[in-house]
Design brief:
This protein is mainly α. It has 3 helices and 2 strands, in the order ββααα. Strand 1 (43-45) and strand 2 form a beta hairpin. Helix 1 (55-82) crosses helix 3 (108-123) and helix 2 packs antiparallel against helix 3. The longest helix is centred in the middle third of the chain and has 28 residues, at 55-82. It is elongated.
């Protein structure tokens, strides 16, 4: 998924006021650096070194992921009606595998977070 195709691109102006829950990933693309000595992968932002996402980047990714959860909720409800041959758990597993194959620019931990939210909506309280 290209940046222009990413859900949540039309974030509200009060995006700064959005509170990102602590369970949302801080670093969706952890770096692995080769070598004999320990290294830290960091980026410079506003004169400071940041490991992982800046708060603004994390907030934007959170809004994008919550939008995906909402879209996938509707999709799951439709597929639940169409796919009587699958249990709800099997359906969610198929959706999980399908979204990971899409090529969207999401980290593994973001996919895990999205599917955790989706599973909680459908499997908790049953």
């Amino acid at each position: 998924m290209s940046q222009t195709d990413m859900p949540g691109e039309d974030a509200p102006n009060d995006e700064q006021e959005v509170s990102v829950p602590e369970d949302f990933p801080h670093n969706p693309f952890p770096a692995s650096l080769a070598g004999a000595h320990m290294k830290v992968a960091a980026c410079e932002s506003d004169g400071r070194y940041v490991i992982g996402l800046t708060e603004d980047e994390r907030r934007g990714r959170y809004l994008m992921c919550t939008d995906l959860v909402e879209q996938l909720t509707g999709y799951t409800e439709r597929k639940r009606i169409e796919r009587h041959d699958l249990t709800l758990t099997e359906l969610l597993n198929e959706i999980d595998a399908g979204i990971r194959r899409k090529g969207w620019e999401l980290g593994q931990v973001e996919f895990d977070w999205i599917m955790g939210r989706l599973r909680a909506k459908f499997l908790c309280g049953r």
